[in-house]
Amino acid sequence: MSGPLSHIKVLDLSRVLAAPWAAQNLADLGADVIKVERPVKGDDSRAFAPPFLKDTEGNVTRESAYYCAANRGKRSITVDLSKPEGQQLVRDLAREVDVILENYKVGDLARYGLGYEDIKAINPAIIYCSVTGFGQTGPEKDRPGYDFMAQGMGGLMSVTGERDDLPGGGPQRVGVPIIDLTTGMYASIAICAALANRAVTGKGQWIDVSLLDSCVAFLANQAMNYFATGESPKAIGNAHPNIVPYQTFKTSDGALILACGNDNLFNKFCEVADCMHLAKDPLYSTNGARVKNREAITALLNEIFLTRTTREWVKLLDQAGVANGPINTVAQVFEEPQVLARGMKIELPHAVAGKVSLVGSPMKFSETPIVHEVPPPALGQHTDEILTKVLKKTTEQVAALKAQGIV
Questions:
Q1: 108 counts as catalytic
Q2: In the prediction, which pLDDT does 379 show?
Q3: The CATH number of the domain where 189 resides is what?
Q4: How many angstroms separate the CA atoms of 381 and 37, rounded?
Q5: Between 180 and which of 18, 164, 197, 398 could a Cys-Cys bridge form, CB atoms 3.0 to 4.6 Å apart?
Q6: Within this chain, do residues 350 and 320 fall inside the same structural domain, yes or no?
Q7: Catalytic residue, candidates 12, 43, 147, 180
């Protein structure tokens, strides 16, 4: 393996998305990630389908596309954690790794002798990351949590979507499970920070990351808008609460995003759009004035954008150095020359489907480049390999574990 974490070993006891996403990030960075799954059923997300992958002959497999989104770069072993022998296998694996990721409900793994204190006793340097809906403390720590719940409870849905008084208005969740993904990213950062600290101190630690905390942190400028004014921000569709114009506009044949992040960009826009009178008007000459007079300036710009096609606007604005862009479908994303040039679509061989198309990592390194080599595993694909090569089990011992339904 290559990558900046190629010296790190990870035990992934998680399922679905938030924690598996973090483990996938570590795998992308070169870590050796062993994913522990339930026998027969595996990770819950293996059942989040259709769609399923198709094999080289076009036949539908039982490999869900959802599972593949968060599990590339990992090896899969099946272990029954409800049995003492299965719990011992995980403890044995825990002795061999640097990081453990889990997203069981608070206290669940401790019942199996696999909680942080249990693992710390056999591997004092372990970095143990727990991902839950509400965290390890607080009055709601025992509640199950999902992305959708966190988006609502954490306030994100209240600022997402069209204005309440317009058609289609009302709270909306983001079109991808953004809080699962954000929580996974926070967990990834925390793990890397803990590894850096351990390199200096020699000490491991327990990391506590939750969906709700991550959503609250993700409110960012909207939270600060509330702190500054005492008023809860509201959904305003594709507009920006603090910058104007920073939104979508209809063109003569479609739509376009215009992002004037400062007054200089607004002036450049006005030059190419032949509306310099707006840049000189005190009502619109500064961002603060435009935010105050949002509806009026938006109405004027709506009329201007209808005079040209999307392609014509993109060409003009690009030449002027004004940030803009089309609104692509997912299919169009993977036709974008820049997306393809950056290696954001990759293809790897797959044990069941023959090959699988995946989204590549966005992280680029000059000295320790990421190399995608390991596809999302089939359920239990590496059980024998891990038992014999990592835990040094004999062929007879592996056969016995299988006969007992432990793996």
A1: no
A2: 96
A3: 3.40.50.10540
A4: 11
A5: 18
A6: no
A7: 180
CA angle 53–351–85, rounded 5-degree value: 110
Q: What are residue 177's phi and psi, to 5 degrees?
A: -70, 75
On whether both 171 and 93 belong to a single domain, the answer is yes
Q: Which residues 6+ apart lie within 8 Å of 81 measured at CB? A: 36, 38, 87, 90, 112, 114
Nearest to residue 95, comparing CAs of 126, 129, 74, 116? 126
Cis peptide bond prior to 139, omega within 30° of 0: no
The answer to whether residues 284 and 267 touch, using CB atoms and an 8 Å cutoff, is no
Which string of DSSP letters, residue by residue, matches 103-153?
-PPTTHHHHTT-SHHHHHHH-TT-EEEEEESS-SSSTTTTS---HHHHHHH
236: in domain: no
Q: Which residues of the chain have pLDDT under 70?
A: 1
To 5 degrees, how large is the angle CA 122–CA 126–CA 124?
A: 45
Picking from 141, 140, 217, 230, the residue whose alpha carbon sits closest to that of residue 183 is 217
d(CA 1, CA 368): 10
pTM (global) more than 0.85: yes
- Return the pLDDT at 1: 56
Q: How many CB atoms lie within 10 A of CB 262?
A: 11
User: For residue 303, what are the domain limits?
Assistant: 246-328
pLDDT of residue 13: 98
For 91-101, how does the pLDDT look when each residue is reduced to its tens digit (9 = 90+)? 999 999 999 99
What kind and span of H or E run contains 256?
Answer: strand 255-259
Residue 57: predicted pLDDT: 87
Q: How far apart are CA 275 and CA 270, in angstroms?
A: 5
Return the pLDDT at 119. 98
The rounded Cα 281 to chain-centroid distance in angstroms is 43
